[in-house]
Amino acid sequence: MFVFRLDPRSGVPPYLQLVHQIRHALLLGELRQGDQVPLIREVVEQLAINPNTVSKAYRQLEQEGLVRSRPGIGTFVVGAPPEAVPPATYASLRRGLQSWLREAHAAGLDDEAILALLATTNRDLAQEGVA
């Protein structure tokens, strides 16, 4: 079952965090066409947020063609972003990233420092034409 998480420190509106999590789950193959996303009342109970926040997220995803609401039944995945990378590649990269993150935390980097390092490194690679 797909579970949402909210980060109150992110500065990203809660509805947008939900949208991003669904998009990421689709991209990584955690959600597939036909899967049901959590019911609005389930998300409200889980995260203690306003039902309108969840509805807004689901409406945006529906406008993007990623989900469709079936009144009285729930909301289902109907589309996915274009799959440019096979799921096995994501899994392999994730394992490597987990190892790197453990090393970074062991070295004393906090989340902000890790994100700064990732962004800077990605930007440097983009300038080299790699990313």
Automatic annotation (TrEMBL):
Keywords: DNA-binding, Transcription, Transcription regulation. Gene3D superfamilies: Winged helix-like DNA-binding domain superfamily/Winged helix DNA-binding domain. InterPro entries: Tscrpt_reg_HTH_GntR (IPR000524), WH-like_DNA-bd_sf (IPR036388), WH_DNA-bd_sf (IPR036390). It holds the Pfam family GntR. One of its GO terms (molecular function) is DNA-binding transcription factor activity. Residues 12-80 form the HTH gntR-type domain. This is Transcriptional regulator, GntR family.
